[in-house]
Amino acid sequence: MRRADSIRLLLLVIIVVVAGAVLYKIPMRLGLDLRGGVHVVMQAEPTADAKISEETMQRAVSVIERRVNGMGVSEPVIQRQGTNRVIIQLPGVYDQEMAINTIGKTAQLEIKNPLGETVLTGADLIDAQLSRDQVGRPSVAVEFSREGTKKFAQLTTVYQGQAIPHILDGEVLVNPVIQGPITGGKGQITGQFTIEEAKNLAVLLKAGSLPVPMEVMEIRNVGPTLGQQSIDRSMKAGIVGVILVFLFMLGYYKMSGFVANVALSIYVVIVLGAMVLLRATLTLPGIAGFILSIGMAVDANVLIFERMKEEYRAGKHLRAAVASGFDRAFRAIFDANITTLLTALVLFYYGSGPVKGFAVTLSLGILASMFTAIVVTRLLLNLVADRKPGLLQRSIAPKGVAQ
User: Fold this and answer.
1) Is 399 left (phi over 0), alpha (psi -120 to 50) or beta?
2) Phi and psi at residue 154, to the nearest 5°
3) For residues 66 and 114, which has the higher predicted lDDT (pLDDT)?
4) Torsion of CA 259, 262, 268, 270, to 10 degrees
5) pTM
6) Could you say which of 109, 179, 252, 316 has the lowest number of CB atoms within 10 Å?
7) Cα(241)–Cα(311) distance, rounded to whole angstroms?
8) How far apart are CA 343 and CA 356, in angstroms?
9) Would you give the distance in Å from CA 281 to the centre of its chain?
């Protein structure tokens, strides 16, 4: 075995082992259609101070996105519907009340002085995090902006020994008594919070307030039963399709087809491992993109083998035919995969939710298929050409031609 091939083989083994370990240790993230979750439709309601406009709705969607990201939801769907509605899909979230309390509250924070005058609002905050108070109870640590720090320092200096109410959406959240000036720009909101309540409050304050009130028009749970059925059927379809491809490649291309099947198996492990490692979320369209990319991986091997046959029939030595076949097939493989990859990138940029899932799996599949076709298949064919040249010759030589 040549030194270069030995190094490539070692790197390939390391990649496959790492990908396999990732698949074994880390579970795949599933989208709403496979995992279930909450589906919410919210409608913006105009007020005397805020009218419904394109800018208002864009701000509302932006705030909701920040809140959902703060919840740690994977692959959420947040999109406009009409002129004043927003659709939110939260995979893996089944508590409707918690979801509405987090994404639907206006979350207008006001810190007033003892005279009832608003001194600070949520706009003066730059950060809010889940924390613990001095006795270990859940609380929210807040950090003010430069201007907010000045306001808060002045407020806590002037009104020492008096209560300054913190009001969220018109309701008193806490009503602490100021013990001394707070000039560092940081504070803590304490109360009878559970960990979940404190976490949700931190998400609300950090994401900012909604520009207009949002009313829930529809909310329902999407059960995981349909998702499990979809997974089972997709798995069956995928397995049957892969088996048929394996049988065709083995029957038509013989030893070359066996090499292609080994490379395809490696391809599957690498793609799934990359999806898990990148924390990509698998959806039904994503499964479709993955299966489509398998077909493209096989197509690349077919191009290579046909080119190898042409070169070998032209009288080239076996090793030279393998090298020349790859070189001549590379341009066609590269052009076909790059154009598909560009399409996938456009889908990812302009799409949302399941469409993005399809684009992600298709993109990963294309990149992995190019790697396995150009690197893995070539390495394996070189190994076969060195150790079992007769088997490879019989698979690429035309019938009736002496080997």
Assistant:
1) beta
2) -65, -40
3) 114
4) -90
5) 0.62
6) 179
7) 31
8) 12
9) 5
Count of residues making up the chain: 403
Burial of 52: CB neighbours in 10 Å, binned 0-12, 13-18, 19+: middle
**How far is Cα 192 from Cα 139, in angstroms, rounded to an integer?**
9
Task: Provide CATH 1.20.1640.10 ranges for the chain.
Answer: 3-30+225-396
CA 15 to CA 222: how far, in whole Å?
Answer: 37
pLDDT of 159 strictly over 80: yes
Token pair, residue 158, equals 């002037």
Non-local (6+) Cβ contacts of 184 within 8 A are: 149
Distance CA 231, CA 215 (A): 34
User: Which residue's entry shows tokens 């659709």?
Assistant: 87
Question: Is 112 within 8 Å of 164 (Cβ atoms)?
Answer: yes
Return the closest-CA partner of residue 245 out of 258, 228, 255. Answer: 258
CATH 3.30.1360.200 in the chain: give the residue spans.
Answer: 37-222
Over residues 252-288, the pLDDT tens digits come to 888 888 888 898 889 889 988 888 888 777 777 777 7
| Statement: 3-30+225-396 belongs to CATH 3.40.50.300 | no
